[in-house]
Amino acid sequence: MKRLSSLLRLLVAGIFLLGMFAACEGPEGPIGPKGDKGDKGDPGDPGPGSVVNWEGFKEGIVCAQCHNPDYDTLYYVWGIRTQWLDSKHANGGAYFENSSSCGPCHTTEGFVQQSLGQTVTGQPISSPIGCFACHSPHSRADFSLRTVESVTMLAGVVGAADPVFDYGNGNLCASCHKPRSINPKPDPTKTAVTDTITITSSRWYQHYGVQGLMLMGENGFEFQGKNYTNSFHTNAQAIKDNGCGICHMALEERNPAGGHTMKLEGDEGELVAGCETTGCHGSGMELDYEGTQTEVHTLLDSLHTLLLDRNWITASGSVNASTSNPLKIAPAYLAGAMYNFYFVEHDLSFGGHNFKYTRDLLEHSIEVLTAE
């Protein structure tokens, strides 16, 4: 009974004190300053189709549908990244070519600057050509290509106009797979014995990105009086519409090539799924189609031997020239044979992009050097 009485007294006292505080509270004061924003906490499992926006991201981006393979059934970002890690874009090692002149094609950061119309700067902290070079998903909320505008390329031969590459989505590839300038340019009209071209660079060629123009059948050194033709690829409608990806990004089960590796050969053999597209090649296609790549290798080796014999190139493959030891060629038009050697070699397809044009360039180069 004593314990119950004590509890009752405490309860009555509590009610009395509450009443006093309520009576003494007075009017409500002004609102205090806003406190700091609290942590959002773990969003947890969004569930399929749920929208999870993160601070700094465009409204409507569904992060989990790209960054979580449980829900990514549209873009397959994790799988594509795995493919890319096996690509030459990832492993070519050229991202350290990050000056303002090289960065637009060798680094993601430089490519983005160029695509946005910004002044391209040197990129001492740079990354290889990767996802965000070709796509801008966090700004656009999709994986559309940064650009599919046609690309004007630099002609490397005197008298030739700058060609315009326009092959659908392949225009993005051609933004970098295009040649640089060359100085001096070879001239097909300089055929007199007194015509001399003076070369002072061991890299007298249009760099390595000549694939776009080889596909077009443009930019080779065409000797006067010779005929030059193009393969089916140059004007095939499927390639004109879809560009490089129709072959290089095709997909096939149990083949690690294709996709974002851009490779046509893998551990499981050649990837020809894109080549066997309706309107192109039939089943049973091989990359050495009817022995074309074998033929190009043979011709390229023959031209290489002729250039070595003339001491125009070194055993390591560079041009035998420098500012202190210039290479002088007369008649000057013969330098076109060396120009064609590098054009074909740096294309890397050995006729795959444009066999007929490749063969014509090599055969005519061999012919004029053999005749002189």
What would your notes on this structure say?
By secondary structure, this protein is mainly alpha-helical. The chain is globular, with a radius of gyration of 32 Å. The longest helix is centred in the first third of the chain and has 23 residues, at 2-24. The model is unreliable at 20-26 and 38-44 (pLDDT under 50). It starts with a helix and ends with a helix. A hairpin with a 2-residue loop joins strand 4 (265-266) and strand 5. It is 35% helix and 4% strand. The strands form three sheets. The chain has a two-stranded antiparallel sheet with strand order 1-2. Strands 3-6 form a two-stranded antiparallel sheet. Strands 4-5 form a two-stranded antiparallel sheet. The protein has helices at 2-24, 64-67, 77-84, 88-91, 103-106, 108-115, 131-134, 137-140, 170-174, 211-216, 232-235, 237-242, 245-248, 292-309, 335-347, 355-371, and strands spanning 151-152, 164-165, 197-199, 265-266, 269-270, 327-329. Helix 14 (292-309) packs across helix 15.
- Helix percentage range: 25-40%
Q: Describe the main β-sheet briefly.
A: 2 strands, antiparallel
Strand content: under 5%
Number of helices: 16
Mean pLDDT comes to 88
Main sheet: which strands, in order across? 1-2
What structural category do the secondary elements indicate?
mainly alpha
Q: Tally of extended strands?
A: 6
Distance between the termini: 129 Å
Written as H for each helix and E for each strand, in order along the chain, the element string is HHHHHHHHEEHEHHHHEEHEHH
Envelope shape: globular
Structural Rg: 32 Å
Enumerate the spans where pLDDT stays under 50 for 5 or more consecutive residues.
20-26, 38-44
